[in-house]
Design a protein that fits this description.
single chain, 130 residues, mainly alpha, two-stranded antiparallel sheet, 4 helices, 3% strand, elongated
């Protein structure tokens, strides 16, 4: 089952990442690879922890994987902002702007690694039967 769960989560993550980047034209705070990783792990975790509902393919209920991936992409889309348009008016000092950007990037990176760690622990615990 582990391999089939992995494949379902992989397919959902590929589709959702493609929709997010191409369809919504938003930029993830972690880049395309980080976005894919979060959606993949979230879909995998949700697929194995949520109640089994929907049609069965290869002896696996695939709807929980899809719903978890959809929830992940909606949450990420809600906090993502489009790239700001370039302007000729500069109201903030460039040094202050860079310092604030680095600070926010550090916080987002820390959140990313905590999220990835939590998702990996949740997946592992489910397969261990805990």
């Amino acid at each position: 089952m582990l391999f089939v769960h992995f494949v379902f989560a992989l397919i959902v993550a590929l589709v959702m990442t493609g929709l997010f980047i191409a369809g919504l034209r938003l930029r993830s705070p972690w880049g395309a690879v980080g976005l894919f990783a979060v959606i993949f792990l979230f879909s995998w975790m949700g697929g194995i922890w949520l109640a089994p509902v929907g049609p069965v393919v290869f002896h696996v209920f695939w709807l929980p994987f899809l719903l978890a991936g959809l929830l992940a992409i909606l949450l990420i889309a809600a906090v993502s902002v489009p790239e700001p348009e370039e302007t000729t008016v500069e109201l903030v000092d460039a040094g202050e702007k860079k310092a604030e950007r680095r600070k926010s990037e550090r916080v987002l990176n820390l959140f990313f690694w905590f999220l990835v760690g939590f998702l990996l622990v949740a997946i592992t615990l489910r397969y261990l039967g805990i």
